[in-house]
Amino acid sequence: MFQKILIANRGEIAARIIQTCRTMGIKTVAVYSDADQDALHVRLADEAILLGAAPSGESYLRGDKIIAAAQQTQAEAIHPGYGFLSENAAFAEAVTAAGLVFIGPSASAIRRMGSKTEARYLMQSAGVPVVPGYQGDPMEFKSEAQKIGFPVLVKAAAGGGGKGMRIVYSLPELREAVQSAQREAANAFGDDTVFLERYIPVAHHVEFQILADQHGHIVHLFERECSIQRRHQKIIEETPSPRMTPRLRAEMGAAAIMTARAVNYQNAGTVEFIVDERGQFYFLEMNTRLQVEHPITEMTTGLDLVRLQLMVAAGEPLPFSQKDITQHGHALECRIYAEDPAHDFLPSTGKILLAHPPNLPDVRVDTGVETGSNVTIHYDPMIAKVIVHGETRQQSIERMQAALRDYILLGVQTNIPFLQAILNTEAFWQGDTPTHFIEQNLADWSPSPLPDDLQDVALIVAALLEIEGEGETSDTQPPVQTDTSAPIDPWSRADSFRMGGNG
Amino acid sequence: MIFSYQMPNGESRSIRLTATADGTFTATIDERVYAVSVRRGGDHALLLNIAGEEISVYAARAGNSFYLSLDGVALTLEKPSRKSNRNAHAGALDASMPGQVIEVLAEAGQGVEKGQTLVVLEAMKLEIRIKAPYDGTIQRVLCEVGQAVERGQRLIEMGE
């Protein structure tokens, strides 16, 4: 097993990987940018190396600097997390060339699955069903789109996370959608190649976790339902999928393993499928890394996926076979984003004045922020994940509602009110969660107005803070003083409260 | 003392809060008067007694923003700042989110059409386009590529 590894990431995933390393006695090296000097993941690691300025391009995407940091600290392996360089084949190659272990699959598997178009070809040859589409010359898009039939999805070949993706409802919209998708893809992935797929409007996004060792053993760790998405970004995931049947699970699980075998896959990965109204499934793409939502699989299987990744990367065989893997109960994850739900979910930045996560049984919080952390414009807006386990789906929903109510985050706006609204919908309780769930149930949602009695409480609390002079900075206005009768100052009494905010 | 705040719905509300001799407060909002006492817990936690009812809250201030969590409900009040009194008119285009200016597609004196993209902002991997609200002429460009801007910061001024 490794003595020391470097985590080439930040935020909640870096913190989470470090935690498993700590349980295994593995030393950790964190990397960080100027904006993350005081970040949680830096504090948790045994050592930390500064990469550069805040923008990702000068820090977390600098593979050369990351490898140099690993060599400097004598780390033996690099865990890339998700996003950043985790699916960058050139980085995986450079890590190996530097004599280090890349905790993930081979560069070749990354490359082949990283191109959505090549992955589709591969799956077609392997006999795994794929969504009908066209991935050739853009000059043919017009005629091919008509063959596929509208609505058509334009997707980035090098893409993910909804970037470089456009739904086209009719032919006249096609050209601009393609150009816009190409531009977004070029900016996000450095590759403007796009392709077309039939858009399946009523569908469930179901993915399978797979794990493969270096000795040819591949298993699946069941599915995750990821259909609650806003602008193609996942916000709630769960396992088991409410729409799964044992037969479908067996078929899809087998297809996922076949997919992994087709590229000699090693380590952890996820095969994404789309399941239509009739229960027909199609391969969508394979993510050759650990995913954001992996904790729900951990909660139901009782396994630590990062631990398994490290074991596999160190050459150990999987400690179980497919029949040994079972799942128990139900798990849900909600992603907490620093976004303003009252202003079209635009990013919200600022200093976290208080982060007070829920502390309840069977509730896990994976977070990269704590009190005092800075949320900046430079990185992904996801600041935490709340994961709950319950004996039944109903129980896990109730537990999640309690957890979200208890999660206090002061200093930035979050999507928690929106998550709560989703969990309160009848359709969600019924397990009726196709990918257009939000458009169907919450298209006109806006945050509820504050009840009148809480309005008064809010005013009282704010005024109390102000009268005490808490948190004043050079930007603050002095209070408007119209009443100059000077009462006895209660703050000067010797009393049991603690004065002064953290500011 | 009287304090005024902008509520989440944009409305402006005022409260008179005065300290009393025994260390408690009297709060007056519109015609309602409350007796208030407060105990501080750790970490921005307050236990309030308002007219005999206890409520536990978390509250913290940063600049002109007051971040509150009242019984699990998160909300932010703002002190009306000097900036909000500035001339707001249809041609004053402000940043709708904090971010970095990645493209400036307009210059002073340029004629533009309604819907034309003038500035592109980027934050947290999200790109937004600030567009001309009507056909007109650019009067002033107040930002440049690479600049970090705050939410509400003026980027472009167009003629009325």
Jot down its keywords.
heterodimer; A: about 500 residues; alpha+beta; eight-stranded antiparallel sheet; five-stranded parallel sheet; 23 strands; globular; disordered C terminus; B: about 160 residues; mainly beta; four-stranded antiparallel sheet; about 0% helix; elongated
Characterize the overall form of chain A: globular
| End-to-end CA span of chain A | 45 Å
* Chain pair sharing the greatest interface: A-B, 75 and 74 residues
Structural class of chain A: alpha+beta
Instruction: Please give the order of strands in the largest beta sheet of chain A.
Output: 14-13-10-11-12-15-22-20
The helix count of chain A comes to: 16
Beta percentage of chain A is: 15-25%
Count the helices of chain B. How many? 0
How can the largest sheet of chain B be summarized?
A: 8 strands, antiparallel
- Low-pLDDT runs of 5+ residues of chain B are none
Along the chain, the helix and strand elements of chain B come as EEEEEEEEEEEEEEEE
Gyration radius from CA atoms of chain B, angstroms: 22 Å
| Percent helix range of chain A | 25-40%
Strand tally of chain B is 16
Strand content of chain B: over 45%
Q: Fraction of residues of chain B in helices?
A: under 10%
Oligomer: heterodimer
Question: Averaged pLDDT of chain B, please?
Answer: 91
N-to-C terminal Cα separation of chain B, in Å? 40 Å
Tell how many strands the DSSP assignment of chain A holds.
Answer: 23
Mean pLDDT of chain A: 91
